[in-house]
Amino acid sequence: MANTVMFIILALVILGSALLCVTTTRIMRAATFMLFVLFGVAGIYFLLDYTFLGAAQIAVYAGGVTMIYVFAIQLVSKRTLQGMVEKIKASRLIGYGLVVLVSLVVVSLILLKTGFYSNFDAVADTELSMKAIGTALVGSEKYQYVLPFEFISLFLLACIIGGLVVARKEED
Q: What is the Cα–Cα distance from 43 to 61, expressed in whole angstroms?
C-alpha cells in the first residue's frame, strides 16, 4: 500500500513538472521543472529497488540538467531572457489539445491491440537481476542497447559542438 501511495505521489510530481516544463516561457524555469521530472523518475527507480539505475539517473541526467543551465546562460543573452514573453492563442491551445488527445487514443489502441496490458501481470512477477540489466545495457546482441547508447552519445556530442558554434561570438 505504501509503495502504491509513493508511486502515485511520484507520478503526480513527474506529470505536473513535465506539464509545467513544456508550458513555461522561461528557460531557467523549464530546466528546473525538467530537473524535478528526472528526480521523480529516479524516485521510481528507487521505489522498484533498482538503486544503481536510480543513482545513475541522478548522476547522469541531473548532471545533464546542470549543463543545460550553463548552456542556457551562455547561449541566451540577458536581454532576450528578460523580454521573452509569448502569448498563446486559444485556437492554438485547442489545436494542441486535440493533437494530444488523438495521440493518446492512438497509443492506447496500439497498446491494447498488441496485448501490452495483458502481459504486464506476467512480467511484473519476474524479477531481474542487476547482472541481467547490465548485460542488456552494454551487450551487442539482439534486444541489447550498446548501439543505441553509442548513437545517442554521438548525437549529444554533436549538440554540444553545435551549441559551442552558436555561442561563439562573431568578431566585428
A: 13
pTM: 0.53
| pLDDT at residue number 122 | 59
Tell me the C-alpha distance between 44 and 10, whole Å: 7
pLDDT tens readout for residues 20-39: 988 887 777 888 888 899 89
What pLDDT is attached to residue 51? 85
Q: Is 153 helix (H, G, I), strand (E, B) or coil?
A: helix
The answer to whether residue 79 scores a pLDDT higher than 80 is no
Question: Phi and psi for 57 in degrees, rounded to 5?
Answer: -60, -45
Distance CA(119)–CA(1), nearest Å, equals: 23
Distance CA 15, CA 33 (A): 10
Query: What grid cell was written down for 70?
Result: 550553463
Contact 31, 69 (CB under 8 A): yes
CA distance 93 to 10: 27
pLDDT, tens only, 90-99? 778 888 889 9
What CA–CA distances, in Å, run from 55 to 35, 44, 50, 146? 14, 11, 9, 20
Distance between CA atoms of 153 and 98, rounded to whole angstroms?
Answer: 34
Q: Quick count: other Cβ atoms within 10 Å of Cβ 43?
A: 20
Q: What residue type is assigned to position 161 of the chain?
A: I
